[in-house]
Design brief:
It is a single chain. The protein is of the alpha+beta class. The protein is built from 12 helices and 32 strands. The protein has an 8-stranded parallel barrel with strand order 25-26-27-28-29-30-31-32, surrounded by 5 helices. Helix 10 links the parallel strand 31 and strand 32. The model has no long low-confidence stretch (mean pLDDT about 95). The structure holds (2S,3S,4S,5R)-3,4,5-trihydroxy-6-oxo-oxane-2-carboxylic acid.
């Protein structure tokens, strides 16, 4: 870039400022209690696509003012699910722009009395506009994150109601993640084409559950819980902070109080208390059972339940909300990362929310299968690459002691601009607001493979990292970086360095002797430059299940095995240096991508197939992850880890042979 170009860019960067982000409110996970009811709106909805060349037609023609079936032929569409792979029609799979959903529902008469009614979406990708009975109630931009609105005055009680959702999947340079829309000549006309650089299919639709729920007029709107341990982890502290919503709250705040109970797994109350005037307080738990990661302790993922009772000063019970809490500490410095005072070595995966037919739709069978596979393979962590995963999956990780690096939807971040910065910060704000109470969340990842070479990346990532730290100082900030350390301008703003690198695949494909040294040297370079803990966020090789080639050749199961083994060697050299804190395979399972000449039916770097069956490498990785668990955390080994081959190596048989030889 010439001097003039540089000055222009510099000037543009200067005008990017650190603006305030409107804080998220409410959004507690919908739970029933003595004072709350929850109803699901999941099921089959009606669905239509709009004309790609005329995406705003439905809004102009007010499609929301009556049943969609009056304007177009509707087809059934399951919620939650991506709409792309449900039909056999490629114009639906590849549709760019707006689609519409509607359905009818009843609201019980009993809900009309003295309470509030809320409508909550777990996530809609990418932008959502929602009407009830023809009136707009909420809009939200950004996939993978929840949003809600109070609909008390929009629903009809004891009568039929209609909900209409318009969903827009278009990604442009100021969305998170970014994409481009262009017009390309096609047979008989012009096509609207969506492109993006990230390597997963841009699935869209109502991806997670839709709920109606009630709260009292004055209600528990937000809960923030943190924890601490002392006396060699024998005493725990739970700190809670509540915000009350509702008309009465402002004038009456000082007269309200929260009474709190903490119950253990057997439902025995182990601590209780009453909040101070600011609706916050602390609970002390003697003989505490800390939250430990899987394989680091005999009882991993121990959760207590905190019960919050909102009372008026004259003792009237207004609202009750319960949530699970884990008691643990996280600490980090230049050389290590500790949980409950013990150094942690992370062994896990980058994953995707992705499966056949349902795309990115929430699916409890898949969640459960994935958790079973993670435990089978001995992983203790995963990164929510490359966007926030469902709230239900986070709850599952809490219960099972799986540590989560929680990533926002910023992937391949490029062409830095003010709108992008504002939205990137907002994505972190919404993510932290949603996930701050999960003990499983051990780190925030502010981006995947951002283009951190340009100097604008410096201020952009400084703003995002500092903003994240200001919102939550209890967890370190990371990002998965792929730009070489010599040109990267973001890593210096992070607490923990995570790098993605495909030795033996994108660099030097087929060369198994060009892996170990490269990995070791790169990790050392990152550490030397920043003096911070380092981990590898991605390594791997595309592998077609059932393709066997000896000697190992790329795309075969043998090659994936040997490539992993070369990486393991590097990691073991690095593990001797305390600052190397983890290894993450790319990817847990095969997943769908945009159509490309480098992808055969999608990305095949899974250790499991898309249908969640193991490739050969899964068995190798399982041996490593459990061996690490044994060495580092003294875990038990599963009985079927090493299959019987011969008794030739047992002491007894050796003894027999020696005797026979005499
Ligand atoms: C990466 C990306 C990931 C891709 C992967 C690959 O670096 O972070 O999203 O899927 O490489 O397989 O190319």
């Amino acid at each position: 870039m010439g001097v003039v170009g540089y000055l222009i860019h510099f000037a543009i960067a200067l005008v990017i400022v650190n603006k305030e982000v409107t804080p998220t409110r409410g959004m507690l996970y919908p739970r029933e209690s003595e004072t709350r009811e929850v109803r699901s709106l999941d099921g089959l909805w009606n669905f239509v696509t709009s004309d790609e060349a005329n995406p705003t037609q439905g809004v102009r023609d007010k499609w929301f003012s009556d049943d969609l079936s009056k304007v177009k032929d509707v087809i059934p569409m399951p919620v939650p699910a991506s709409y792309n792979d449900i039909t056999t029609d490629n114009t639906i799979r590849d549709h760019v722009g707006t689609v519409w959903y509607d359905r009818k529902f009843f609201v019980p008469k009993s809900w009309a009395k003295d309470q509030r009614v809320w409508l909550r979406f777990g996530s809609v990708h990418y932008e959502a506009f929602v009407w009830i009975n023809g009136e707009m109630v909420v809009k939200h931009e950004m996939g993978h994150l929840p949003f809600e609105a109070e609909v008390t005055n929009f629903v009809k009680y004891g009568e039929e109601n209609r909900i209409t959702v318009m969903c827009d999947n278009a990604l442009i340079q100021t969305t998170v993640p970014q994409g481009k829309i262009s017009e390309v000549k096609k047979d008989g006309g012009v096509a609207i084409v969506q492109t993006y650089t990230f390597d997963f299919f841009n699935y869209a639709g109502i991806h997670r559950s839709v709920h109606l729920y009630t709260t009292p007029k004055t209600f528990i709107e937000e809960v923030e819980v943190t924890s601490d341990l002392e006396d060699s982890n024998s005493v725990g502290h739970v700190y809670y902070k509540v915000k009350v919503g509702g008309t009465a709250s402002n004038e009456a705040d000082s007269n309200l109080q929260i009474r709190v109970k903490l119950r253990n797994k057997e439902s025995v109350t182990v601590a209780n208390g009453t909040s101070d005037g600011d609706l916050k307080g602390a609970l002390e738990v003697k003989n505490v059972k800390p939250w430990w990661p899987y394989l680091m302790h005999a009882e991993p993922g121990y959760l207590y339940q905190i019960e919050l009772f909102l009372h008026t000063a004259d003792n009237t019970l207004l609202d009750v909300y319960r949530l699970k809490v884990g008691i643990r500490t996280l600490t980090w410095n230049n050389t290590s990362f500790l949980i409950n005072g013990q150094p942690v070595y992370l062994r896990g995966f980058g994953k995707h929310e992705d499966s056949d037919i349902r795309g990115k739709g929430l699916d409890f069978a898949l969640l459960t299968r994935d958790m079973n596979l993670l435990k089978w393979i001995g992983a203790n962590a995963y990164r929510t690459s490359h966007y926030p995963y469902s709230e239900e999956s986070m709850q599952f990780a809490d219960e099972n002691g799986i540590m989560i690096i929680d990533e926002c939807p910023s992937v391949d971040t490029d062409n830095y601009n003010q709108a992008l910065l504002d939205k990137h910060k907002s994505s972190m704000e919404q993510l932290i607001h949603r996930d701050r109470n999960h003990p499983s969340v051990i780190m925030w990842s502010i981006a995947n493979e951002p283009r951190t070479g340009p100097f604008q990346a410096d201020s952009h990532f400084q703003f995002v990292a500092n903003f994240t730290r200001a919102l939550d100082g209890t967890r370190p900030v990371t990002a998965a970086i792929a730009v070489p350390s010599a040109s990267d301008k973001a890593a210096k703003h992070l607490d923990i360095i995570c790098f993605n690198r495909y030795n033996g695949w994108y660099s030097n494909p087929g060369k198994l002797d060009m892996i170990t040294t490269h990995v070791v040297e790169e990790a050392i370079t990152w550490n030397k430059k920043h003096n911070k803990p380092v981990m590898i966020g991605e390594y791997g090789a595309d592998t077609i299940e059932g393709l066997h080639l000896l000697p190992a050749y790329i795309w075969s199961e043998e090659y994936q095995n040997e490539l992993f083994s070369k990486h393991f060697k590097a990691f073991d050299i690095l593990r001797k240096k305390e600052w190397f804190i983890g290894e993450f395979v790319w990817n847990f399972a095969d997943f769908k991508t945009a159509q490309s000449i480098t992808r055969v039916g999608g990305n095949k770097k899974g250790v499991f197939t898309r249908n969640r069956q193991p490739k050969a490498t899964a068995h190798l990785l399982r041996k490593r992850y459990f061996a690490l668990g044994r060495e580092l955390d003294r875990c038990d080994l599963p009985e079927d880890l090493f299959l019987y081959i011969t008794d030739a190596t047992s002491t007894e048989s050796r003894g027999k042979r020696e005797t026979a030889d005499l």
